[in-house]
Design the sequence.
């Protein structure tokens, strides 16, 4: 990893946010010390939490907004009316080249809808896929399509395999996944 990698975090998304987001970033910062973070959310809530994590605070920039996409909000409503939400601004940071990726523990449907609208799809990819990785006895493995798609055809599955291979190679450092 290079020193210039920035992860944009929707600091207000998910249960127990922003506390759990800051704590998760602090754990990640120990594992990935070269990463920098752009936390998008309510600065009045984030600043005291970051003050308790000086190592994380040193590599974090806060982008203030008080707007949040709620967990029960319909994706179409979040897309239309959440232009200043922490989720939307975190995604915009990737679109604007300020961050390499975005992480949100918030409303999954809204995340997918906003990301697809703002970031678009890569050529040859029809659907987005949520990915995560998990430990195994021989290292780490990743899994795609964690709930975003109810019906997939063979072409979608091949596209997910390609995206998973790229993720495992670039994010996990596995040369030949």
Sequence:
């Amino acid at each position: 990893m290079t020193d210039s990698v920035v992860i944009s975090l929707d600091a207000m998304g998910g249960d127990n946010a922003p506390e759990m987001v800051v704590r998760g970033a602090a754990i990640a910062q120990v594992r990935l010390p070269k990463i920098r973070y752009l936390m998008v959310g309510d600065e009045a809530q984030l600043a005291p939490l970051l003050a308790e994590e000086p190592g994380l605070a040193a590599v974090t920039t806060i982008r203030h907004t008080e707007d949040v996409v709620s967990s029960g909000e319909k994706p179409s409503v979040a897309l239309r009316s959440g232009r200043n939400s922490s989720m939307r601004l975190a995604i915009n940071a990737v679109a604007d080249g300020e961050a390499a990726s975005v992480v949100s523990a918030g409303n999954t449907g809204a995340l997918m809808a906003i990301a697809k609208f703002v970031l678009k799809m890569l050529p040859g990819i029809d659907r987005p896929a949520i990915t995560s990785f998990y430990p195994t006895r021989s290292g780490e493995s990743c899994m795609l399509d964690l709930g975003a798609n109810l019906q997939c055809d063979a072409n979608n599955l091949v596209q997910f395999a390609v995206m998973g291979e790229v993720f495992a190679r670039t994010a996990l450092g596995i040369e030949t996944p």
About this structure: The chain has a mean pLDDT of 91. Helices lie at 19-31, 43-51, 54-57, 75-81, 86-95, 108-119, 154-170.
